[in-house]
Amino acid sequence: MRVGYVVKRFPRYSETFVVTEVLAHEAAGWEIEIFSLRPPNDTHFQDLLPHVRASVRYLPCEGTRPSDFWAALQDAGQIQPRVWHTLPEARGELAGDVYQALLLASEVRRRGLDHLHAHFASLPATVARLAARLAGVPFTFTAHAKDIFHETVRPEELRRKLEDAAAVVTVSEFNLQHLQRTYGSSARHVRRLYNGLDLGRFPFREPRERPPRIVAVGRLVEKKGFAVLLEAAALMVGRGVAFTVDLIGEGDLEEPLRQRALALGLGSHVRLLGPQPQAEIGRAVAEAAAFAAPCVVGSDGDRDGLPTTLLEAMALGTPCVSTDVTGIPEVLGDGETGLLVPQNDPGALADSLERLLTDTALRVELARRARRRIEQLFDARVNGAQLRQLIAEAHGSGAGSSVPTTPVPVAGAPIR
User: Fold this and answer.
1) Given this chain, do its domains 2-196+379-394 and 200-374 carry the same CATH topology?
2) Which of 126, 234, 243, 292 lies at a CB distance of 3.0 to 4.6 Å from 264, suitable for a disulfide?
């Protein structure tokens, strides 16, 4: 199977799940081509990138002249005559999106691609849907969070994508229920499929002896809830708790968070470290006594689907505190695989973090159970095979879709 992956930007530092998924497909023998609709704009890149064999094509997106658009249309029509009959599918779309879809459709035919898969139900699915219709191949997409919850989502546009896709996956049961409740029969093709981790890259280490360090990782934006973490840290300082917080990431709220930390007198307790290489992040998380993911629903409706950083911390053996936002309770059971607190509740967050810092037995038990949950639900080999199965079924074939036979650990199985 030759599959074109359509993403908004590649590589993108925060989207490790795309690279992990591509590597799983390549390991299974599929040929992947990556099409990026925008150039990368990050300052750091993932350490897995050198292992990706897929080529990356950046589709032109800005400053399109009428002559460029016409040339793209002529070229696509010459390669695939059905383009002229399918063009009405572009009604209502932005000219730039149609232009990229025409370019992508031509690449599909030239490169002999069988299928298109987009990550995110927003721009990537828009372009992939139209390109697939123009080129005469099936398409699928993965829906995450902002692309289905943000206030800018246009329901009728998303409904059209759901109906036209051969299959749709989304990253949590919460998302699945939302789509089915909101879009009814249009969401009949949607399946829940968690983003996978390459578990070999996240070795478990029991958190018995850890310094009183809390780590939080993510973009410095409202939905991550890091402002709540600062308020919780101030409460812990007032109680005389010994701890430090390392906040890793960059984003629009970096300076406001820095100023708030100073105003709360957290200078000796909280460090904003900016973006870090992935290896450094892994070491910081693996050595911490607790991982904080105090996610909230943003004022614009944006929210996390299921943070990859949370899954990675659980895999590494660092006990986690998070909130009851979207799909998080599906993996982080309160008192079972972590500690769950209400969103926007600094007091509850402070209480739970203090418990993890001071209760060694609790840390160890939560960490062991969390690792088992990750092994059961988030193995990239298994989840990647399930996605390949869905794609193969869209072509009336099960070829290349066998699920690995490595037994999945069950409750009570030893951690290796």
Assistant:
1) yes
2) 234
Across residues 58-86, what is the average pLDDT? 88
* Lookup: tokens for 345: 């509740």
**DSSP E strand boundaries for 324-375:** 339-341
pLDDT by residue (tens digit) across 142-167?
999 999 999 999 999 999 999 999 99
Q: Domain 2-196+379-394 - what CATH class?
A: alpha beta
What token pair was written down for 283? Answer: 């070491």
- What is the dotted CATH code of the domain comprising 200-374? 3.40.50.2000
Radius of gyration of the chain from its Cα atoms, rounded to whole angstroms: 22
pLDDT in tens, 234-267: 999 999 999 999 999 999 999 999 999 999 999 9
Maximum Cα–Cα distance across the chain? 73
Across-strand partners of 302?
none
Q: Tell me the per-residue pLDDT of 285-332, one tens digit each, with 9 for 90 and over.
A: 999 999 999 999 999 999 998 999 999 999 999 999 999 999 999 999
Domain positions in the chain are: 2-196+379-394, 200-374
- CB-neighbour burial class of residue 352 (10 A; exposed 0-12, middle 13-18, buried 19+): buried
Residue with tokens 């800005």: 62
CA distance 379 to 197: 5
Model-wide pTM > 0.70: yes
CA 312, CA 215: separation in Å to the nearest integer?
A: 12
Please count the other Cβ atoms lying within 10 Å of the Cβ belonging to residue 397: 12
| The length of the chain, given as a count of residues | 416
